Amino acid sequence: MSEELAQKNAKLVKKLVMVVLLMFGFGYALVPLYDVLCDITGQNRKIQGSTEEASEFVVDESREVTVEFITSLNESTPMAFRAEKNSLKVHPGQYYTVNFYAKNNTNTPLKAQAIPSIAPGLAEEFFKKTQCFCFTTQTFQAKEEKTMPVRFVVNPKLPERYKTITLSYTFFDTTNIVEN
Amino acid sequence: MSAVVAEHDDHHDHEHEHHGPEKGILRWIITTNHKDIGTLYLLFSLAMFFVGGSMALIIRAELFEPGLQFVDPNFFNSMTTMHALVMVFGAVMPAFVGLANWMIPIMIGAPDMALPRMNNMSFWMLVAGVLLIASTLFMEGGAPSAGWTFYPPLVMQTGKAFPFAVFAVHMLGVSSIMGAINIIATIFNMRAPGMTLMKMPLFVWTWLITAFLLIAIMPVFAGAVTMLLTDRFFDTSFFDAAGGGDPVLYQHIFWFFGHPEVYVMILPTFGVASTIIPVFARKPLFGYSSMVYATGAIAFLSFIVWAHHMFTVGLPVAGELYFMYATMLIAIPTGVKVFNWTATMWKGSLTFETPMLFSIAFVVLFTMGGFTGLMMSVAPVDFQYHDTYFIVAHFHYTLVPASIFILMAAGYYWLPKWTGNMYNEKIGRLHFWLSVVSVNILFFPQHFLGLAGMPRRIPDYAIQFADWNMVSSIGAFIYGFSQLLFLYIVIDTIKGGTGEKVTDEVWEEASKHGLEWTLPSPPPYHTFTTPPEIIPTEHI
């Protein structure tokens, strides 16, 4: 192999290795990019720790929407978790409060984060929570049981085709996760 | 360093550089010769084909009847996962890298690959990666069983095998990136004078494009599995909902890699088919430049269609529509190719030696796999097909009677060149007919099962799926065992075959179709140490 060819090869390999490194970085760049795209399209909104601003709506007495409540625990989270009722018929524009109960079944303190999810996803922007235990990480003492109210309102602008909205919470055991 | 240096600048090294291969086992371990490394890749992938195939037979044996028969469900899921990993990363990809190593230098008139030592390293890294992933079978908690896609949160339940699987993926990724860089450097810098890009054989073109796909996607996959690793061991929350992450993000990153990855396995297939069909039709390839552009178009489209694998995760409607239409676009360049192959055969003087039989079967059966792909691209109906046996049938049609058949065809086509001996045509044809019939018995019923709603990756199923599963399993065993004929033929041909001495051309007028047929059969250890003269050939 001539010197010249060896140099040509080395130059090309350097460029190709740069492409490889850039693409490795691109994989990681997809993480923030994904958040931005979800934000723009209003999809799959990850509900962060901020309370949403309370606003007054005109109550639409003529319409009823069923709101269902589902509670679940991730894998082996050692807790008991339930809602006060399975579902509630609500008038759009009216504020309601529903209690959720969670208990630490272990003899040691436990930290847990509830992750909410709303179905159908497209109805999410019309469902506002003004108070929720999911806004912050919950700390439970040994065997402690908590009553946690959720205050919410359905925006009267909710399109007619939505008759039922399902609100589900999953508790994740975050005791061993370091706060960032 | 190659022989050229020895000849021109380095006379005292002359003797050392010009001797043949090392003696004994060391030849294969330290070799930097493209032919040796090509042989290593091909033999390794053949071995892995049988390992992955045995796993498939365990799956089909379990699914022969409803109910749990032979293996426990976790092991069954390990088998589906490992079958996919072994076949994708251990069999199909290395087989094409092997063909690239053997054929690209002698197709473009180069003395060797551009980076021979890296070539050796990428092969042995592949072996290490595959051994690492195989070692997980013996670990506490079993081998990975969440599917080859490694979706979280399910994959987080993998036992001790988890970090080993991740590191194995890293090694396999580094190995294929090094292979790809080597191929690009060889094609760009080592072509014989006069071998312009648009004179290159299509196999070389398809590999050039495939190599670019590889260096673009393997790092993304490496990143994705690294995120899984840090989520599990270092408290990051890329995909962990508890920490504000999102498992769906993983699917986006994975399929950004995954969709081009499936084209990594099919584009070189197209290249080999475009090489073989003209020889046995005794006509130049129809539409050479449209083949090149179609390959480029398919490669480009592969980067912008990934979410058609995830229509059911809850994409915005605009996203569903975009990914649906973009996916349908792929049918256009693919159609160009299928019509070109057909037009090449049109009014040709066809003969039906084993490589041609496999190639024709490829054109027909790959088209069927392509059509089911088109069906699944329609987002609203994909909700019915998603995660059912219809998907399994689709991608096996595009992999087994397509990539695998073409690899078989390549074996039959080039074995006489590689070994200098002729294979047994009778057994070759028997192998073909057994394969083509049984592969359809194996996979065609899976379309019906999928449409009827049988989910993928389950060890047991509802009773109404029993009949077609039994048919499918029977096909699987016939197909699996008939591949032993290929193993026999390979060994037999290496040992001398029919005893008939083959000419340099091997196939009638093959030398019009590629430089490799101007070399002796078998070619000497070092070829094209002085670049050949490129005379305009008919295929342009």
Summarize the helices and strands and which ones pair or pack.
The complex is a heterodimer of chains A (180) and B (540).
Chain A (H helix, E strand, L loop, with lengths): L2 H39 L23 E9 L5 E5 L3 E4 L4 E10 L5 E10 L7 E5 L6 E3 L4 E10 L9 E10 L7
Parallel strand pairs in A: 1-9
Antiparallel strand pairs in A: 1-3, 2-4, 4-8, 5-7, 5-9, 6-8
Chain B lengths: L2 H6 L5 H5 L7 H5 L3 H29 L10 H36 L7 H20 L25 H29 L12 H32 L13 H35 L6 H15 L14 H13 L1 H15 L8 H24 L1 H7 L3 H31 L5 H27 L14 H30 L45
Helix pairs in contact in B: 4-5, 4-6, 4-17, 5-6, 5-7, 5-9, 5-15, 6-7, 7-8, 8-9, 8-10, 9-10, 9-12, 9-13, 9-15, 10-12, 12-13, 13-15, 13-16, 15-16, 15-17, 16-17
Key traits:
A: 180 residues; alpha+beta; Ctag/Cox11 (Pfam 04442); 2 domains; four-stranded antiparallel sheet; elongated; B: 540 residues; mainly alpha; globular; disordered N terminus
Total domain count of chain A: 2
List unreliable stretches of 5+ residues of chain B.
1-16
Percentage beta strand of chain B: under 5%
Q: What portion of residues of chain B is helical?
A: 55-70%
Main sheet overview of chain B: none
Number of H- or I-type helical stretches of chain A: 1
Tell me the structural class of chain B.
mainly alpha
Structural class of chain A: alpha+beta
- The string of secondary-structure elements of chain A, in order, is HEEEEEEEEE
Shape of chain A: elongated
Please identify, by name, the CATH architecture of the largest domain in chain A.
Sandwich
Q: Helical percent range of chain A?
A: 10-25%
| Succession of helices and strands of chain B | HHHHHHHHHHHHHHHHH
Number of helix segments of chain B? 17
Largest interface pair = A-B, 38 and 46 residues
Average pLDDT over all residues of chain A: 86
The CATH homologous superfamily of the largest domain in chain B is called Cytochrome c oxidase-like, subunit I domain
Radius of gyration of chain B: 23 Å
CATH C-level of the largest domain in chain B = Mainly Alpha
